[in-house]
Amino acid sequence: MSETDRSHRPLWVDLALLTVSALVFVALVTLGTWQLHRLEWKTNLIAAVDARAFGDPVPPPAQDVSEDEHAFLRVAVTGTYRHDLSRRVKAVTELGPGLWLMTPLKRDRGHVWINRGFIPQGMEVDELAAPGGTVGVEGLLRITEPDGTLIESNDPAQGRWVSRDTAALSRDVGLEDFELYFIDADHSGAQDAWPRGGLTVIRFRNPHLAYALTWFIMAAMFLAGIAYVVWDRLRGGSG
Predict the structure, then answer these.
(1) Residues 46, 47, 53, 54: is their CA dihedral positive or negative?
(2) Which residues of 10-22 are buried (b: 16+ CB within 10 A; e: fewer)?
(3) Which string of b and e fits 34-48 if b means at least 16 CB within 10 Å?
(4) Which own/partner pairs from 152-161 qualify as long-range (CB within 8 Å, at least 24 positions apart)?
(5) What single-letter DSSP state applies at residue 181?
(6) pLDDT single digits (tens) 85-117
(7) Do the strands 134-143 and 110-120 form a parallel or antiparallel pair, or are they unpaired?
């Protein structure tokens, strides 16, 4: 740009450019800072899950179960399966698309839903052997998943379940004493038997540092742009 162009450029144009650039710069820095907070949260989550999921099994908490304190806690329970009340829930796993087999386990103090594992699409509950007598179940505590997913809703009337909503499942089968969590059971029986337990994903991606660096680099580029506008105006004004 020539000195004549700079001298004739209205000051309000530069001020508008500076204002927009400053707002964008602040937004980019804010996004980068948010990603740093997410990085800290994800790092703490991974450490907590590792400590809970691979520890010795314990009884589930009697009350005040929360995602922050108890998700993925390794637990052990004993009871009797209500196989006749089983429900199938849409699942996508390392084995491909299929269904989770959810069955309530009757204990001395109410019922807890057990995700007994993955079954292929189309497999019916009555095709599976009903576990008899008192059984011990070991697995990972998971918090209920209410209201379906972002793109699909549970439809009990049609027998379509897309999330493991223990309250809705309990209402559907007529249970009044249930927990707001379920247990992802470890696999039991033959290696190739159905249902296939032990498929809980406990590996979490942690790309937040890369995201933060990206936002901060973009912020630095915008800061350089602001500096150029100021320099260009001052250089034009001094000519």
Answers:
(1) positive
(2) eeeebeebeeebe
(3) ebbebbeebeeeeeb
(4) 152/90, 159/87, 160/90, 161/87, 161/88, 161/89, 161/90, 161/102
(5) E
(6) 999 999 999 889 999 999 999 998 899 999 999
(7) unpaired
Q: Which residues pair with 88 in a beta bridge?
A: 101
Q: Which is nearest to 100 in space by CA: 162, 144, 143? A: 162
- Report how far apart, in Å, the C-alpha atoms of 21 and of each of 216, 218, 232 are: 14, 11, 15
pLDDT at residue 182, rounded to an integer: 97
Average pLDDT over residues 160-169: 96
**Encoded tokens for 62:** 């009697």
- Is 126:200 a contact under the CB 8 Å cutoff? no
Helix (H) or strand (E) holding 182: strand 178-185
Q: For residue 2, how many other CB atoms are within 10 A of its CB?
A: 9
- Reported as a single tens digit per residue, the pLDDT across 38-96 is 888 888 878 888 888 888 999 999 888 988 889 899 999 999 999 999 999 999 998 89
Listed as own residue / partner, the contacts of 214-221 with beta carbons closer than 8 Å and 24 or more positions apart are 214/32, 215/28, 215/29, 215/31, 215/32, 215/35, 216/28, 216/29, 216/32, 218/28, 219/25, 219/28, 219/29, 219/32
Six-digit token string for 6:
């700079």
Q: What are phi and psi of 138, to 5 degrees?
A: -120, 140
